[in-house]
Amino acid sequence: MNRQGTLSLLKRSGGLAIKLSNINRNQSGRDLTKAIFTRFFFSLLIYTTALGIAFLIAIFILTRFTWYEGDRLYEFFHLIDRNRFAFLLTLWIIGFIVIFFSNWRRTLNYIDTIVEASNQLVETNDGLIQLPVELKQVEDQMNQVKQRAMSNARLAREAEQRKNDLIVYLAHDLKTPLTSVIGYLTLLRDEQEISEQLRQKYLSIALSKAERLEDLINEFFEITRFNLSQLTLEQSQVNLTRMLEQITFEFKPMLLEKNLQLELVVDPDLQLICDIDKMERVFDNLIRNAISYSFEKSTIKINVITKADGVDIQFENEGQTISEEKQSRVFEQFYRLDLARGTKTGGAGLGLAIAKEIVERHGGMISVFSENELIRFTVSLLTDS
User: Fold this and answer.
1) DSSP label at 321?
2) Angle between helices 136-190 and 3-20 (to 10 degrees)
3) Rounded distance, CA 339 to CA 164, Å?
4) What is the CATH topology of the domain spanning 236-382?
5) pLDDT by residue (tens digit) across 200-218?
6) What is the per-residue pLDDT for 138?
7) Which of 30, 2, 17, 4 is nearest to 121 (CA)?
8) Is residue 65 classed as helix, strand or coil in its secondary structure?
9) pLDDT tens column, 123-178
């Protein structure tokens, strides 16, 4: 990614981070404004007090002198004494103006410093923003925004790179079945005297490869849909027991291919309010993943645990343990547990990310646990969601 793209990404991420921290920033701004006004009024109070004390001291000292008529200094102080209120008011106004403009200039310097520091929010380096001691709270807030923006930008770059890698993998995988389809169809066209048995075999292979092409093309559409669509829910009541029974029944051919067994433990006629199509997609994806990452001749278990306010639906299989690092990232967009599998046994790395989004839109949560060659995904839903 070039620098311009990185900066654009940082700006978008920074914008998101700034929106997320609006409350803290507003509080920080109010605190800074309060500090500026407090300093101004304290300065004015100190000046007023000092002016009054100085005037009283001056009167005390001047009354101790012996003055003579015609003394110009005496006439000057006598004039001030006769107009002491106007004199004090003039000095106070002058002091007020000096203090006001002094604080105004300092405030403008603060603004200039903050504006200059804000330019560092979109810089790609990891250096922290440094402001004067008086702006410590603003400095902390800006550094939090920058760190969050850098983190969001890094995650966005990683997701973009994973997406690009998967597109390359998908494009490469398109070539193999396409070549096979062309090859077998060409053979059927050129070999007129081929036996019916061999013809059916070639047609079956060509059809299988064509179906694989369809799956790969759907992967491309999946990537596009995930970026462009917004998930909306159309909720209705459904018999969760029957839904799971129907979904697991549809996976029998895939289970037979790997000699897998599937056990479903669920209470009869368990009701749930959800978007049926989208929740079916969640369950479909979790079962498909369990099959893809299960050891051969092992058992996949689906347990539905009823709670007072909801249900926990656990999808458990025996397979290679998922490390803690991978567990923390398994729900990220375009992240796949094992890229070495290509796209033959896995999708575009969107299934779990979409599943997480769907479950959370229902007010639930999805989690993963893995140790000792055991993998368990748990979907927690409210029964009245």
Assistant:
1) P
2) 120
3) 13
4) Heat Shock Protein 90 (3.30.565)
5) 888 888 888 888 788 777 7
6) 75
7) 17
8) coil
9) 666 777 777 777 777 777 778 888 888 888 888 887 787 777 667 766 666 777 78
CATH topology (fold) of 160-228: Helix Hairpins (1.10.287)
What are the helix (H) ranges across the chain?
A: 3-20, 22-62, 72-82, 84-118, 136-190, 196-228, 240-250, 252-257, 276-292, 324-327, 351-361
Mean pLDDT of the chain: 79
Map tokens 């690009």 to a residue.
164
CA–CA distance from 318 to each of 165, 254, 327, 332, 370 (Å)? Answer: 28, 16, 16, 23, 10
**What integer is the mean pLDDT of 280-297?**
90
pLDDT tier at 227, thresholds 50, 70, 90: low
- For residue 251 the two structure tokens come to 């996976």
Domain ranges of the chain: 3-155, 160-228, 236-382
Which stretch of 80-89, 130-139, 205-214, 232-241 has the lowest confidence by average pLDDT?
130-139
- Identify the burial level of 116 via C-beta atoms within 10 angstroms of its C-beta, where 0-12 means exposed, 13-18 middle and 19 or more buried: exposed
**If we measure between CA atoms, which residue out of 68, 189, 109, 273 comes closest to residue 117?**
109
pLDDT at 70 over 90: no
Using CA atoms, how far apart are residues 47 and 214, in angstroms rounded to an integer? 83
Answer for the pair 378, 312: CB distance below 8 angstroms, yes or no. Answer: yes
- Topology match between the domains 160-228 and 236-382: no
Q: What is the spatial distance between Cα 270 and Cα 55, in angstroms, rounded to a whole number?
A: 89
> Can you give the pLDDT at residue 339?
45
Contacts of 174 (CB under 8 A, 6+ apart): 213, 216, 217
